[in-house]
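Weekly sync, protein design subgroup
Attendees: M.S., D.O., the rotation student, P.L. (late)

Item 1: inverse folding check
M.S. brought a backbone from last month's batch and wanted to see whether the design step gives back something sensible before we order anything. D.O. pointed out we never logged the input encoding, so this time it goes straight into the notes. Structure tokens as presented (358 positions):
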């Protein structure tokens, strides 16, 4: 095939994958092409892609400047929009056998917070009612954090009349202005880094900032500072529960800053929403979540660095809309939505483990 025909065929196949509820397509040199559907991997051909074939497939949809960037940096992330219903987050890289590409299908419609399967949605909406503070969305890779972040932005877009700035890598779900004006920036295309975008955003009159990744010291420090100075900041982190999230957030700071930063986070934190996607008994997927909302007891633990006490506070904070990940998992198990094996894999305490029967 010539490049034009190959590009058309690849676009058609990506549309087909999206229509078949495939979450990821992988095209990797030295391996058979495969897809992921409902977390299960399936090969789509017995043919092992050669170095030349993989490079051609993974670059045929790129413009010249994109291809130059890929070859220069050996890694390249971009958003691919084929039509209004088919959008993809693409990661290209080089590995020992040659070029490799992962094409992650993105929801065609802006997600609604009520339809994600989250617990205590009213509590989450209450966290969004604040006009300043820090709200964290966390979970492992593939846990649906990006979808949840987009749903939170959509809820704010509908409910308020504010200026929202998002910083993403890449922009996946596009928000049209509803009640709010929404400015979406992509790292690498519209700004150099998350921290530089956040620094610039503070001079762009935002009311709400949604940050696609809080990882390095500078970005976290600026996010905390912005949350203290009259902005609602929503950030994503790759952590598994509320306690780990707060430890990760605070431990990036040097010892000399610990007292000050713990005090700042204690004052500015609004809540932490952790989530996991688990395989369901019906062959689909279900969402388990943990919710921490800040109250005087939580603030005191953060200020004093006693994260080991969070579990007890969350167990007694049900009336405030809090819930533990393990309790969410057990509820799914008792409702017959997940297997005993999946439940065991996602609980750690013996007391909760004892509730799981074969």
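Designed sequence read out in the meeting:
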């Amino acid at each position: 095939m010539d490049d034009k025909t190959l590009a058309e065929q690849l676009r058609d196949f990506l549309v087909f994958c999206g229509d078949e509820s495939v979450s990821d397509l992988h095209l990797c040199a030295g391996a058979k092409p495969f897809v992921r559907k409902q977390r299960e991997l399936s090969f789509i051909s017995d043919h092992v892609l050669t170095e030349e074939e993989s490079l051609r497939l993974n670059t045929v949809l790129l413009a010249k400047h994109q291809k130059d960037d890929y070859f220069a940096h050996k890694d390249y992330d971009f958003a691919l929009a084929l039509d209004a219903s088919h959008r993809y987050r693409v990661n290209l890289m080089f590995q020992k056998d040659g070029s490799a590409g992962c094409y992650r299908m993105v929801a065609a419609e802006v997600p609604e917070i009520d339809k994600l399967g989250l617990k205590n949605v009213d509590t989450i909406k209450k966290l969004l009612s604040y006009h300043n503070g820090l709200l964290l969305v966390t979970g492992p890779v593939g846990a649906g954090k990006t979808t949840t972040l987009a749903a939170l932005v959509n809820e704010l877009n509908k409910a308020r009349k504010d200026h929202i700035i998002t910083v993403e890598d890449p922009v996946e779900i596009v928000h049209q202005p509803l009640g709010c004006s929404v400015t979406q920036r992509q790292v690498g295309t519209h700004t150099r880094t998350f921290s530089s975008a956040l620094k610039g955003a503070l001079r762009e009159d935002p009311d709400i900032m949604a940050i696609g990744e809080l990882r390095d010291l500078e970005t976290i420090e600026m996010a905390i500072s912005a949350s203290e100075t009259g902005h609602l900041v929503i950030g994503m982190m790759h952590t598994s529960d509320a306690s780990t999230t707060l430890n990760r957030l605070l431990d990036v700071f040097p010892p000399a800053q610990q007292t000050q930063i713990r005090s700042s986070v204690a004052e500015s934190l609004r809540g932490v929403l952790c989530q996991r996607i688990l395989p369901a008994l019906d062959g689909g997927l279900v969402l388990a979540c943990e919710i921490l909302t800040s109250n005087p007891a939580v603030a005191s633990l953060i200020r004093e660095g006693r994260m080991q006490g969070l579990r007890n506070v969350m167990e007694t904070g049900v009336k405030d809309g809090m819930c533990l990940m393990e309790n969410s998992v057990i509820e799914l198990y008792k409702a017959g939505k997940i297997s005993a094996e999946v439940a065991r894999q996602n609980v750690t305490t013996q007391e909760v483990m004892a509730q799981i029967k074969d």
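Discussion: Residues 113-353 form a domain with the Rossmann fold fold (CATH 3.40.50.300). Residues 318 and 324 are 9 Å apart (CA to CA).
Action: P.L. to compare against the previous round before Friday.
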